Amino acid sequence: MSISSPGWRRSTNSNSCPLHTFYQFNVSSGYLLAEESKHAVKVLRLMSGEEIQLADGKGNLYHARITSPDPLKCEFEILTSIAIPKRKFSIHLAIAPTKNADRMEWMVEKCVEIGIEKISFLLCKTSERKSINMERLEKIAISAMKQSQQAWLPEIVQMTSLQTFLKEQPETQKFIAHVDDQNPNLLQHLATPRSDYVILVGPEGDFTKEELDAASSAGFKKVSLGPHRLRTETAGLVAVTALNQVNQK
Amino acid sequence: MSISSPGWRRSTNSNSCPLHTFYQFNVSSGYLLAEESKHAVKVLRLMSGEEIQLADGKGNLYHARITSPDPLKCEFEILTSIAIPKRKFSIHLAIAPTKNADRMEWMVEKCVEIGIEKISFLLCKTSERKSINMERLEKIAISAMKQSQQAWLPEIVQMTSLQTFLKEQPETQKFIAHVDDQNPNLLQHLATPRSDYVILVGPEGDFTKEELDAASSAGFKKVSLGPHRLRTETAGLVAVTALNQVNQK
To answer: Between residues 183 and 222 of chain B, which touch chain A (CB distance below 8 Å)?
Structure first.
């Protein structure tokens, strides 16, 4: 399904087809990154004169034209650019990675598509996975940013212990996903619009009582994500969707 | 993350661990289905006297005890049962399957975890995939139902043409996911609680103008799922999450 982004003109080529988008954090270099060059020239077979779109991941989109379709260093010239402001809210998901790496990878893809500013990975008491493949997750985030025509690349943060993490968060609305029957507050009811949110999601074995207490002491409110038992990666996705929807007016 | 389901007691064994759940559409047989028998005895190594939980997918959960751990025909006796009422609303997602079958499979898993009554597959003008593997999708739905401790198995419906589909839907609130800048109505703002919903999500190439017009004529309202361009499977997931959240009070 294609949904056009309101608020900025989606560039099209002379046949009114959407332009191919490439990630280019340093636009002033004048040529695409090695992997993007290869994709543009070898896979998409773009030629001199063809128009493309560049996203620098820092809020800028560029309408550009290929000047030299070199598969190692595809050169371009900038035609126009547009600066996309940051959203009026921000979402930071901090999650204990699942044992199965695939499940985290698709969650990162989906969170980026739906809208997120930052994803951190937590090492918890019952975590089964103690490390993550940062390079792979960053590639997935870049690809999802391009696919969903966004200008900001979410930040992916290396794994830290929950203990360290709890001390360092500047966000104003802090939540921890956890339900007991005595505390059925839903995330979308406690979160108020236009704020900076951080939400914690625990590992398969859940947070321990000590971890929950430490989070409470650090100002994190316990919230429910609904009546069903959700897998870790589903919980992350539902939380991010809920916080986006709270801000859609 | 574990979230306990409110409204019914989650069965636990003598160590207060949650019981393993098995799908058993015909409880009166007295033995588990072949695949479930194998899983119980060969993988989980359950023994005589151990307690299990059965879900019949038709609203009933049973607390049972293994009487004969045969890996082909694992026998059990019922201890107690509980009937879970249907939800006070229903969600029917009708989606054009993605070219990549994996993407539909995880979407089915996630939709079942989050909460859904029915998933239909649509053949549209620009569909790249013309058939689906029903057996595999049903297995995924069963597994997600068990994992999320639910009692109702969502219905998975074989592929039909959009044209035929539009004529046959009894739901009272009908939506089609599509955004143009002239129609930015968000699904979660148009859907009202405690109703029966059907929402259509188009293929990678989107619905054609003729398809959109036919859906409008059949009473489907165009809705937006947010400001970003979403992949087909992400759109399905966001729609199902939004309709669940509209009903969480």
So the answer is: 184, 186, 188, 201-206
Q: What is the pLDDT of residue A8?
A: 35
For residue B235, the chain A residue with the least C-alpha distance is A1
Binary contact (B2, A229; C-beta < 8 A)? yes
pLDDT tens, residue by residue, A165-183: 999 888 889 999 987 666 6
CA distances from A34 to A28, A37, A107, A133 (A): 15, 5, 27, 21
The pair of structure tokens assigned to A55 is 């996203």
Chains A and B: how many Cβ contacts under 8 Å? Answer: 148
CB–CB contact B1 A110 (8 Å) = no
Neighboring chain B residues of A226 at a CB cutoff of 8 Å? 3, 114-115, 244-245, 248
Asked if B3 reaches chain A (Cβ–Cβ under 8 Å), the answer is yes
Q: Given the DSSP bridges, would you call strands B75-83 and B90-95 parallel, antiparallel or unpaired?
A: unpaired
**Domains of chain A and any CATH numbers:** 21-83 (2.40.240.20), 90-246 (3.40.1280.10)
Give start and end residues of each alpha helix (H) in chain B.
Answer: 34-38, 101-114, 134-147, 162-167, 187-190, 209-217, 232-246
Q: Among B106, B113, B201, select the one facing A230 at the smallest CB separation.
A: B113
Taking only the tens place, the pLDDT of each residue in A237-249 is 999 999 999 999 7
Residues 103-142 of B with CB under 8 A from A: 106, 110, 113-115
pLDDT at residue B3 in the model:
35
Whether A58 contacts A153, CB under 8 Å:
yes
- The answer, yes or no, to whether residue A6 has pLDDT greater than 60, is no
The model's pLDDT over A104-148, given as tens digits with 9 standing for 90+, comes to 999 999 999 999 999 999 999 989 888 999 999 999 999 999 999
CB contact under 8 A, A177 and B228: no
- Residue A69 contacts B where some CB pair is shorter than 8 Å: no
Q: CB of B149 within 8 Å of any CB in chain A?
A: yes
Residue A107 and residue B234 in contact, taking contact as beta carbons nearer than 8 Å:
no
For the record, the structure tokens of B107 come out as 């979407």
* Overall pTM > 0.80: yes
Residues of chain B with pLDDT under 70: 1-17, 180-183
pLDDT for res A183:
66
Please list, in sequence order, all residues whose beta carbon lies within 8 angstroms of the beta carbon of residue A234, skipping any fewer than 6 positions away: B110, B113, B114
- pLDDT for B2 equals 35
Using the Cα atoms of residue B2, residue B93, residue B117 and residue B146 in order, give the sign of their dihedral: negative
Residue with the bigger pLDDT between A79 and A6: it is A79
Residue that has been written with the tokens 């990666």 in this structure: A233
